[in-house]
Each structure stands twice: as structure tokens, then as C-alpha cells.
Amino acid sequence: MSNDDEYCPVCKSSRYLNPQIRFLIEPTCYHKMCASCVDRLFGNGPSDCPVAGCGKRLRAARFRAQTFDDIAVEREVDVRKRVNKIFNRREDEFATKRQWDDYLEMVEGTTFDLVNGTKKEVEAAEKRLREYEEANKTVIERNVQRERAEALAFMAREEAEREMLRATRKAAELETEEDKRELMLSRHAQLEALSNGDPEKAERIKQNYIKRAEERRRKARLDVETAKGIREGRALVLNSMLAKAGEEEDEEEEEEWEPLGKNVSDTSKYFSLLEEYPRVDWIDGFVADQKVAAGGYDRQDWYQRSLFEAFAGLTVFLPEDEDEEAASKSLPDRTDIMVVDVPS
Amino acid sequence: MEDETYLGSTQYRYFTFTPSKLSQIRQRTNQLATQHLNESIQSAIQAGDLSDSGQDLLEREPLTAEEELKLVSYYITQSVAICDHFRTGSAVKATTLIFLQRIYLRISPLQIHPKTLLLPILYLAFKSENGVTSASWFIRTAAEAGLTITREELLTPEIDLAMNLRWAFQVLHPYRGIEGVKLELLAMQAGTYRGPAGETAPPFEGTRDRIERACGRARILLTGPALCTDVYFLYTPSQIAMAGIWVQDGGLIEYFLGVKIKDEAVRQRLLKVIRECGERHLLATKDAPNPYPGLLLRLPQNGVPISVEIPPELKKEAVRIDKKLFHLKKPLKEAKGKHPPATDTSEEERRAKKRKLEKENRDKDDVFGGGGMIKRKQ
Amino acid sequence: MPTPNGSTPTVSSVLVPAGGEVADINQEIRDKYVKDDKIGEGTYAIVYRAHVKGTGQPVAIKKIKISSASEGITMDSLREIKHLQELRHDNIVNLLDVFVGKSHNIHAVLEFLAGDLEGIIKDKSIVYGTGDIKSWMAMSLRGLWWCHRNFVLHRDIKPNNLLYTMSGVLKIADFGLARSFADPGNENMTSQVVTRWYRPPELLFGAKSYGPAIDVYSLGVVFAELVLRVPWLAASTDMQQLEVIANALGTPTELNWPGVTTLPGYCIPNPDNQLPEVDLNNIRRQFPSMSINGAQLLHGMLRLDPRKRVGAREALESDWFREEPIPTKPQDLPGKKGKEEQEKVGQDLRRRVGHDERLDGGDLDRGKKVARRLNFGL
């Protein structure tokens, strides 16, 4: 982009004349001029574009450096940036592929009109843009949050990844260094023992070294795992937050944790299980058998069950017959198996 | 919390009634079955399959609901004997008897004779309480008592039995509750009792022995004679347990409920229910009046386990009723012989004839089949 | 067994004559549902998606295959029906109805469930976080608490049996191995229960008397799997399983588990490298992504000695549930709740063949990889 032939259309100075020259553009009309001209022309407030035939109202603050060689591209990219800030939906929000494609087409259409359209088309497109923005404020906001959270998550992941690599590298380095040192010491000691006529001692020293080396290796592996784990842990928590960020803002208070769920209680109104009950031979004998207790059989479970069954339905009363007289009349003679009916 | 669980149980939802409702159900079953029987005879007459002219057949005295109940009760006692032979233990025995009672709420002996279902029901109870049980072992054990049954006869009715039981296999038994009451009483006696809110109990008058004796006897009652009554249909298992103990030692229960239930009104009502259950069903003797209308099952309590002594009046009645039943259904057997249904294949026919022959042979000896159900162990 | 109308007795005509109340009820129930399509099939049952005629509410109908009428009711179906009929809870699958179909098969109507945790864990395109894990654990524990409160052991807890509804609520399903516990008279249970990877050490050691701690252990292993997203303690034989457990949690000895050596199948799984029972720090090292409270909960659920394990109730009191991030609301939980999941439902609700296959555990499945969405501009 730094073309030596470039010159400012307003003051006609070039890089040859002013090596520090910087060119800026304004996104309203995309006309280029050097920084000193911008300062001179617009330093005291907005003014008209000096380029012949343009005359659009420009502001110093809006001037910025050009990113692309082709000004048309620059313009289009700016348009897209603006449009995508509003049309920021995602594929998973659509039930069918067709709907997603339709949305994409709508976005492209609007963008195209804004970039290449006639004045009328541009106006219509802007209108569409504004209408969509109005109608979908919440959705847009939500997706903005999502993107933000995703960016955070991404960075955090990178960071954790980097740390893990760092840890691995460090561990490997340390290990080799230490290992080398120990090997030398061990060999030294072994030789000494051998020269003193104690081969067993030498052997022991050797074994010792091997064990220690093993231990070091294991520890190193563990550290790597830990770093990995931390990375995963962060990932899990971040995922939760991501999910939350993507949600609509709910006006909910913090709910207190109820272990058994809402409106569920496990209090008995009849009994409470005591720590100890008086001796009951047959069950005591059963539990005294070691393999019964070791298997996880708990005598308290039996007590609990007995008590539960003792009271289940204790005060459940069946609806009594409204009118016993009436009831008895509609039935045959009262029968009572133990009273032997003599057939009439 | 216990009450909630109980209210959600199938026992409460499907098989607990007021006395009049219970009676109504049995009446209706009897009516429907009689109707059905008559209709079948009617069509057999029209098809010209019967030797007798139809009319007097239809005018025979039908089986009454009471007679049905008596017959079923007799077979319940037989079932107790079978359970003892199988050494089922309390759980399977109790479940078997209750299954039997429940099934015959909506099925009449006119449709199927109880003796054919005793073994299948026992087998189902085994499965439900204990888990897998080898059919071969079962058939062999049955044979030892002189009861022959084929694998097919054992397993084929199962699905229909389940349907009749409304797929409710869990039966809550009062005898388990006795353990719980005993525990609390023992704690009260030892002075270590604490209630749900930490309250203590007033001092207990009596020895540990008193508690053990009452509860022990109550357990025998509830794993024996009580199973042959209608209590399961009319009271909650907890109430039955209390009644069982009350019958042995009323003071114990009054003391106990005094500690457990603070609300005076509720306690009085509960005591009334318990007394009623005890007096009218568990303690009932031949001479005790039964102010309750309707078809209820009660058997005289002599304090003796039911398998050893079946009330002689009941047996006599059962014999009479069975004969009546036999005669009511005889014409149809005749009709069946003459007019095999179109759906029969030759294979089915042969099997059906074979079964009929077997049954007739059995029936020749004794109305109950097989010369007395169980060979009494001497 | 001759019947009133003399036709050859197909079972239904024997016990449930047309027009009988039970047959009517059965017919009514059958007519309530309209079958939509088949969503799965196994050796044990065929699963259909169906809906309630009037309301269109989706349900799953499990049609249990029986090879012939002479099999009777299988233990699996009996257990499932028996327990689901009595256990009603938000986090336990709801058995809506049972009926007998035209070909004399048992149909169990269950609420419609969209998928299971195994599907979520394996599908790497589904992202979930700590809050979600908490939510699932809380719901599983509550369901388990209710089972245990009602003295029922599930005996087959694993991700495959933890299903969720269309609105994300988790339900414990598959009660085919369930049974009641605590009755000392009934404590001679089989130790060959629970799928191997989730089976607690006491069962691997052949214990015949055990308690609710077995389900808590299984759920603990599920907890670990939710965090790791791969099966944690996988092995292909019982012996290997003990080794894996010993290496991860410590070698069971008299020191950390008094009485363990008396268990029938006791042995030292890793004699050359015996390890002490892991403490909290060790668990934290194995699961570094967990907070202290989370690791403490996990540790408590995985104690070697079943007497030392936390109970479901106690687990729910863990501070882990109270700290950030809080458990996700069910409707916000991830999971495939669309039509593709019907395949899964079928797979989940069916049973695998034979005993060994059941206890084998699933197979490892690498999840799909998903490209990251690139973002230009901004």
C-alpha cells in the first residue's frame, strides 16, 4: 500500500515531499486525504468533503487508515461489519436448513443492496435493517453475549493449552537433568561398593536408582495429567457459563437448593429411627455373621422397614358406609361363613 | 410420609373397600357368571346338544354368592396346607392366600374351579416374592403331595391371573409391621424410646416378656388364620397389625397409641377401627354376632393353626356346594362332547377329550378330586 | 379344563370370559392407545412409539415377546411391573398401564422418554458442563432415594438406564432386576447383578446379603463417567474388574473393610501392587477438574466398604449442589429431544440377550468430531 507515487488529492503533497505522510479515509464517502489535511480541514468541527462533486459532511473522528488496497473492498467490508452486527443469528436457531438458507439469503440480499444498489435500493435496505433491529433486539443482544462468552472461552482454552505444554516441557527437562545426575551418582556409588567387595550393596544401589527413576517418570506423567485436568475443568465451567450467556435474561431469584426437590419431605410423622434398639435375638444373630455385615446389610434398614410398615396407613380411614341401614337392605341376608346356613 | 406411600400403593387403590362395596363386587361377579352359564346352556339347548329338555335346567337353583364364598374359603384353607408342604415361609404363603382371595373377587367358581388354580397361584407368588423358581422343582414337590400338574397347566393361566390381579403383585403384609411395633414397645419398656419430635414415653408397666408374648402370638395369628379372613380388603396393614396385637393384649395397644397419637379424636377413631377389626374378624367365634352386612370371610378362631383343623361345618358345606356346582355344569360338558367347536383341530380335540377323561376319573373318587387334596403327613 | 360354553379353553376364555369386568377393563386400556411406529426391537421386547387416543400424548409401549404361552411371565417383566406399579416419583419412569394384547402378549405402557445419558456422554457433539452434571446427579439421586425409601434395590444402575423426557427430566428406568431388601428372612440374594463396569466390589466378592449401597456405588461410577466422558472402570472379566477397581480405588483389606475376607468370593485382586484405599486427595488427583466438594461426594459414593458409603439422602445434602455453578434446570439440559432419538429410545428400552451379555457393559464409541465455526470480521 505504501506506494511512493501516492499523493494527497487535497494538498498534493506526497511521500517524497513528506516522508511522514499518512493517508486516511472517511467511511461516509471513502475519499482519501493525508492526515495534515484532515486536521486542517476538520480540526474545528465537521465540514464538507473537499473532493469535487462530493460535498458530504465529514468529521475528523471518523477518519481512519485504509485496510485494503481496493477501496471498493474496504467499503464492502465496512458494510458487512455493520450488517453482521445486526444480522447475527446462528444456524442452530433455525428449525430447518431451508429457514437458515432463507435467512442467509435475506442477509446477502440486504448487503448487496447496500453495497451496490441505487439510492432507492439503499434506502429500502437501510429500512429493512432498521426494522429488523427493532423487532429482534433481544435476539441480537443474546447473540452478542454468546459471542463474547465464546471469545473468552477460546482465549481461556488457549491459555490452558499453553500452560499444559509449558508444564510438559518443563517436566521433561527437569526429569532428564535429574535423571542424568542421579545416574552418575548411582554409578559412582556402585563402583565404590564393588571395589569394596560388596556386590550386593552395588545391586541394591542399582535397584534403588531404578525405582527412583520410575517414580520420577510417574510423577511427571501425573503432573501432565493434572495440567490436562485443570484445562478440562476450566472447560467444563466455561461451558456452563457459555450456555448461560446464550440464554435469555430471566428475572429469577437464586433458588435455594432443596435436596429432595420441591415439596418433598422424608420426615416420618410417627417414628424416628433410634440409634440403638433393645436386643432382638434373631436379627442380632443374623447380623453378627461377618459376611452379612461386610456385604453391606444394615440392621438399621430392617428396623426402618419394620417401622415403616408398622405405620403405613395407620390413620388412613376408609369412608364409612353412609347409611348402614340402607346398605344392609340392598343385600341378601348377612352371611357369615362360620354360621352354617341350613339350606332352606 | 408413610401414609402417602400407602395411599399410592396398589393395595390401597385397587383392593381396599368398604364392607358394602366388597359385598357388591361379589354379588355382581356371581350374577354375571350365572348369567353367562345360563346363556351358554340356552345356546346349547337351541343347538340341540342336550338330552334333557332345556327348561328345567334353567330353573335349577343357581349357586349363590354366599355359596361361592364358602367354596373359595374352603380352598383357601386347602391352600394353606399346600403352602406348608412346600415350606414356603410366611411371605409366599401370605401372598398366595391374598392372591387367591383377590382373584375370586371378580371370577366365580362357576367359571373356573378354585382347585385348578391353587398351584398356579402359589407358583406366581413364589416368583413375585422370591424370584426365579424352577418349574420342575415345583412340579416335583407338588407330586410329593399327590398333586399332579403339567408344566402347561402351571404356566398357561399365569397371564390371566396377572390380569385378574390387575398387575398388582405387591401385597403389603401386616405381620411385618408387628416387628416395628415390637421394637418401639421394647424401647418404651427399656426407657430408651424417643418420638419423632424427641418426646419420651410414660413409664411402661410390664415386662419385656409381656411384649414378646403378645407380639409373638399376634404374628402367628397374622400369618395364619387372619389370612383366611377379609381383613386385607377392609383395613390397612398397619391397622391389622395393631388389631392383631390388641387381640392378644388390649392394654399394650392402648398404651402404645397413647404415646404415638396425640390427637385425641384421631386416636379414638383409630382405636374403634382396631377394635372392630379384632372383634369382628380376628377374634370371631361361632357365637359372636356379626353386625356387618354382606359377604365377608371369617373363620372361627380356636387359636389353632388353620392347616391342622378345618372347621367341620365348612368342609361339609364345601362338599355340598361342590356337588351342586358339578351338577350345574354337567349339561355343558355333555354339550361339549356332542358338539365340538369349529375352531378345534384334531390335536386339540384329542387333548380336550383326554383332559375330560382325566377329570372324570378324578371326580369319580371324590368331588374334590384326587381322594382328598393332601395326603396328611402322619 | 372345561369351560361354561364348552369350547376348547384358550387361556383367556378360561379366566376372563368375554363380558367379564376384567376383560372389559383390559379392552378399555388397550383401546386407549394408538400405535404409531416401531422404534426398537430386542430379544426380549419390541418397543413402539404410540400416543393416547384422546390427547395425543406420546407414550412408549413395550410389547414383551414370549416364545410360547407355556413360558408364563418372565421374571424381568414381573419385577418391572411389580415395582413400577408401587414406585411413583418424578425421577422414576412412569408405568402408565399394562394390558394383554390380542396375541396374548403383555404390553407395558410407559411414558415416552427421549434418550439416555449414555447417548449424551458418547456424543461428543453434545457439550455439557458442571451445572448439567449436577442436575443429572441430583435427579438420579432423588429417584434412587425414593426407591431405597421404599425398600427396593434397583440393581442395574448405569448411564443406559438413566433416561430423560422431552423436557429434560431424568428418570431411572429398567427395573427388571429390582427387588425388595432389608428383610433378613430374604437375604439370600444373587450377587450376579449390575452390569460389570458398575458393579460394586461386594458383589464381585459374591456377597449374598447386601443393601442400597450397591446402587450408590453404581451411580458413583456413572458420576465419574459423566466427568470423564469415557467409561472409567472398564474390564472384560470379573477378575479383571476387581483389579481395575483395586487400582483405581485401593485394595480391599480387613483394614479398610472389616469382614471383607469372609465374603464367599474374596481374593486379593492386585497382590503384587496392593494399594491403600484412596483418600480425598487421591480422588482429587484422579479428577482434577472437580471442586473439593464434588470430589468429596464422589469419594463418598465410591468407598470400598459399603457401610462407609454415603446414602442417597446424604449425598443430596452435599455442598457440591449448593456451590456455583448451580444445577441446570431440566428444560435447559442438553440432549437430543427430536425425532432422531426415537431410535435410541427403542434401544434403551429393550433388553439384551442372556445373562452374560447383560453384564458385559457397552462398547466404547468414539464420538463424532465437529468442525469449529470460524468467524470473520468483528
From TrEMBL, chain A:
Q: Which terms are listed as keywords in the entry? A: Coiled coil, Kinase, Metal-binding, Nucleus, Transferase, Zinc, Zinc-finger
Query: Which locations, inside or outside the cell, does it occupy?
Result: Nucleus
Please give the Pfam families that the UniProt record associates with this protein: MAT1 (PF06391), zf-C3HC4_5 (PF17121)
Q: What is its main location?
A: nucleus
Q: Which domain of life is it from?
A: Eukaryota
Q: SUPFAM superfamilies this protein is in? A: RING/U-box
GO cellular component: a single term: transcription factor TFIIK complex
Q: Which PROSITE patterns match?
A: ZF_RING_1, ZF_RING_2
Q: Which residues form a coiled coil?
A: 115-182
| InterPro entries given in the database record | MAT1/Tfb3, MAT1_centre, Znf_RING, Znf_RING/FYVE/PHD, Znf_RING_CS
The RING-type domain covers which part of the protein?
A: 8-51
User: One MF term in GO for this entry?
Assistant: cyclin-dependent protein serine/threonine kinase activator activity
What is one GO biological process annotated to this record? nucleotide-excision repair
Q: Which NCBIfam families match?
A: cdk7
Name of protein: RNA polymerase II transcription factor B subunit 3
Organism, by scientific name, is: Sphaerosporella brunnea
TrEMBL record, chain B:
Alphabetized Gene3D superfamilies for the sequence: Cyclin-like
InterPro entries linked to this entry: Cyclin-like_sf, Cyclin_C_2
Biased composition (Gly residues) is annotated at 368-378
Does the keyword field hold Glycoprotein?
no
Q: Where is this region: Disordered?
A: 330-378
Cyclin C-terminal domain span? 173-278
Regions of compositional bias (Basic and acidic residues) in chain numbering: 357-367
Q: Which CDD domains does this chain map to?
A: CYCLIN_CCNH_rpt1
Record keywords: Oxidoreductase included?
no
Name it: Cyclin C-terminal domain-containing protein
Provide an example Pfam family for this protein.
Answer: Cyclin_C_2
- Which keywords appear in this protein's UniProt record, sorted alphabetically? Cyclin
Query: What SUPFAM superfamilies is this protein classified in?
Result: Cyclin-like
UniProtKB/TrEMBL annotation, chain C:
Q: Which Gene3D superfamilies match?
A: Phosphorylase Kinase, domain 1, Transferase(Phosphotransferase) domain 1
Location of the active site: D156 (proton acceptor)
Q: Which InterPro entries match?
A: CDK, CDK7, Kinase-like_dom_sf, Prot_kinase_dom, Protein_kinase_ATP_BS, Ser/Thr_kinase_AS
* CDD domains reported in the protein's UniProt record: STKc_CDK7
Q: What biological-process terms (Gene Ontology) are attached?
A: positive regulation of transcription by RNA polymerase II
Q: Which stretches make up the Protein kinase domain?
A: 33-321
Which residue intervals make up region (Disordered)?
Answer: 321-366
Composition skew (Basic and acidic residues), residue ranges: 334-366
**Key words, A-Z:** ATP-binding, Kinase, Nucleotide-binding, Phosphoprotein, Serine/threonine-protein kinase, Transferase
User: Which annotated residues bind ATP?
Assistant: I39, G40, E41, G42, T43, Y44, A45, I46, V47, K62, K63
Gene Ontology molecular function terms on file: ATP binding; cyclin-dependent protein serine/threonine kinase activity; RNA polymerase II CTD heptapeptide repeat kinase activity
Which PANTHER family is this protein grouped with?
CELL DIVISION PROTEIN KINASE, CYCLIN-DEPENDENT KINASE 7
Give the protein's recorded name.
Answer: Kinase-like domain-containing protein
Native organism is: Sphaerosporella brunnea
